[in-house]
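Take a sample.
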Amino acid sequence: MIKEGKLSYEWARSHMQILDNTINRLKKSKPLKGITLGFCLHVTKETSVLLIGAKELGATVAVCGGNPLTTQDNIAAYLASEGIHVYAWHGQSVKDYDWSIDQVLKHSPTILTDDGADMNIKAHFDKRFKDMEVLGATEETTAGVTRIRAVENQGKLRYPVILVNEAYTKHMFDNRYGTGQSTFDAIFRATNTLIAGKIVVVAGFGYCGKGVAERAKGLGAEV
């Protein structure tokens, strides 16, 4: 399983040249030495590149799965073999999921990277972690951004949070191209149907809708 995870990691890294170049340029100086990073995100071959990169830059890394259904167990096994503290496995129960976030926060991370805001919310309102010193955090999803803004509006935001979901590059590339492609990938996996000649109706025309519409047109659909 570890060997499979390593092969998947290496394949993903070979397709992520900007991140790979950044890691290679900085790893000699170890800019994250002495810093503990806490991650709550999809544990997949793609995110493994970020996690391994953070460790190569000197950080202590702890990670839990942001979605129990997307964790790739071979990746989790490989990450653990590389010295990353992993609290993630496919098919976790709600209780397991909550426990895993606790384990990451018990490492007292100074920077949090979150996907959905569950870890950030726990860091704010769970009394066990009220004295934890956090320099800052990130949040990726629309739902998570809504939760973080609610905390801010209550005047209870303890540390700055970068709302990655608000970044123009996130809208332009992830939402438009990533969502467009992954939507049809899911349709193909579920139905194995031919899109050419189909009539596709897209409700909503933000960046995600544009991406879906463009991919559908490219596949030969009437949109």
About this structure: Residues 10 and 49 are 8 Å apart (CA to CA). The mean pLDDT is 94. The first strand starts at residue 36 and ends at 41. The longest helix spans residues 168-191.
